[in-house]
Design a protein that fits this description.
mainly alpha; 6 helices; flat; protein transport
């Protein structure tokens, strides 16, 4: 019973794996999983591979045993009892389960090996493609060098045809050296001019920063003057209010003096 349950569980696992492989949505995930298993879990000549072979052999033996049992009772001419019929049915059931399990196991091994081979071939193809690109770049460089050599040979053949030979080459070399000297001189002058321009730019930047500082100081002074003017205006307003109050007090005092003038005279 336990062995039959294990076979049935293995059959279910194989069916799920086959369904996962048949779906077109998990192609990259499947390839990544197979690559991981082939490099880390099931490398060639490993213990896991030996266990897989042993499981395959055990399932095959169970299938053959169930086939033998079912054929033994099926081909017998005797009338089978109920117990033998039940045994025949159990043997046929186990034969079907073990047969499907064996078939799916072999199929999965075939698919796994083909995917591993495909992954290795893709890696080899990428490496060969890189090598081909490097070879093509090297070949193009060789072609360029060949063209330059052909041009130089044509020049030499032209010099030899003119009868100048080595003298013409020396003259051309001297002209090229003069040109190089003039170019170095022009480069030196250009570098000096660039240095002068950099110095001028630095001086201008420092002067500009000073101007910015002066303008900032002037702005600060202007703000201070505005604040002082505002305070002066406020003081003038307060002084005007105080003068108004003083005048009103004077008028009140005069009114009081006028009102109490008669009383003072009577008192005197």
């Amino acid at each position: 019973m336990i062995l039959n349950e294990l076979l049935f569980g293995l059959l279910c696992v194989e069916a799920v794996v086959c369904l996962f492989l048949c779906l077109p949505f998990f192609k990259h995930m499947t390839q990544a999983t197979v690559a991981f298993l082939s490099t880390n879990v099931f490398p060639p000549n490993s213990g896991a591979a030996m266990v897989g072979n042993i499981v395959l052999a055990v399932v095959g033996l169970l299938f053959l045993a169930n086939v033998q049992t079912s054929l033994k009772y099926r081909n017998s001419d005797e009338v089978l009892s109920d117990g033998l019929r039940i045994r025949l049915l159990v043997a046929q059931r186990d034969m079907y389960i073990s047969g499907f399990c064996l078939f799916l196991f072999a199929l999965l091994r075939l698919v796994y090996s083909s995917m591993v081979t495909n992954i290795s071939l893709e890696k080899k193809y990428e490496a060969m493609e890189k090598q081909a690109k490097n070879a093509s770049s090297g070949y193009s460089k060789l072609i360029d060098e060949h063209d330059t050599l052909q041009k130089q040979l044509k020049k030499l053949s032209g010099f030899e045809a003119d009868g100048k030979g080595l003298e013409a080459l020396l003259a051309e070399n001297a002209a090229l050296e003069k040109e190089v000297g003039t170019l170095t001189k022009s480069l030196a002058t250009a570098e000096t001019t660039v240095g002068n321009v950099k110095k001028q730019a630095e001086n201008q930047s420092t002067a500009y920063m000073k101007l910015l500082d002066d303008s900032a100081a002037k702005d600060a002074k202007v703000d201070e003057l505005k604040a002082a003017q505002k305070s002066i205006v406020d003081l003038k307003a307060t002084v005007a209010e105080l003068t108004k109050e003083r005048d009103s007090l004077k008028t009140q005092i005069q009114d009081y003096d006028f009102m109490f003038a008669d009383a003072k005279k009577k008192a005197l």
